[in-house]
């Protein structure tokens, strides 16, 4: 399971409105090779699911993850920290054994 905090849900909704995305659009979260720690998070809006995708919903927003990425993300909470000292989207990933300083890459 993947959790979505209320602040992350609010930011996802705001970004969809800002980008002119339809209500049906969802956030696709993927794990790709790369980044300073070996693996990196990739997020983009999508409207089409693929075979094997898993969907998680909270506070009216949906995140979709492919089966390969889910292996690295199970149990994760997507949060959002805004403001002057905010970090943006924060991946609270219990599977990560090492995170980079910016929080956009990790290793297991």
How are the SSEs ordered, and which strands pair?
Blueprint lengths: L2 E2 L1 H14 L6 E8 L5 E8 L7 E5 L2 E5 L1 H7 L3 E5 L6 E5 L5 E2 L5 E3 L1
Parallel strand pairs: 1-6, 2-5
Antiparallel strand pairs: 2-3, 3-9, 4-5, 6-7, 8-9
What does this structure look like?
- The protein has 108 residues and is of the alpha+beta class.
- The protein is built from 2 helices and 9 strands, in the order E-H-E-E-E-E-H-E-E-E-E.
- It has a single domain, classed as Hypothetical Protein Aq_1857, Chain: A (Sandwich), CATH 2.60.300.
- Helix content is 19%, strand content 40%.
- A hairpin with a 6-residue loop joins strand 6 and strand 7 (88-92).
- It has helices at 6-19, 67-73; strands at 3-4, 26-33, 39-46, 54-58, 61-65, 77-81, 88-92, 98-99, 105-107.
- The mean pLDDT is 87.
- The longest helix is centred in the N-terminal third of the chain and has 14 residues, at 6-19.
